[in-house]
Amino acid sequence: QVQLVESGGGLVQAGGSLRLSCAASGRTFSSYSMGWFRQAPGKEREFVSAISWSGGNTYYVDSVEGRFTISRDNAKNTVYLQMNSLKPEDTAVYYCAATRQSLYSSSRSRIRSYDYWGQGTQVTVSS
After folding, report:
1. pLDDT of residue 105
2. Terminal CA-CA length for the chain
């Protein structure tokens, strides 16, 4: 079992940056692909980004491509989401998630593909 704890959220002005962290428990972190999702008020949870177990493959939703960067440090059991050029529409609760599945295009953006979830961290971008 994997427990995930997100941190790094907060209030930032449009154009600013934040780095989210997701710390994982357990000794098998490096065997999991990791994803970031977000949920804005009144909206469904949506895929943001994912990274393979080795860090060699990364994926992004079009709306954050070029602004957000996902990375991981398997020695620290941590995955990161660097968010630059933030926009008010990025305001949401951000969740990290873990899956043992490979990140196929047909499944990596689906909530049900992920086995473990963190509690979320709030990101608010003011205009």
Report:
1. 85
2. 40
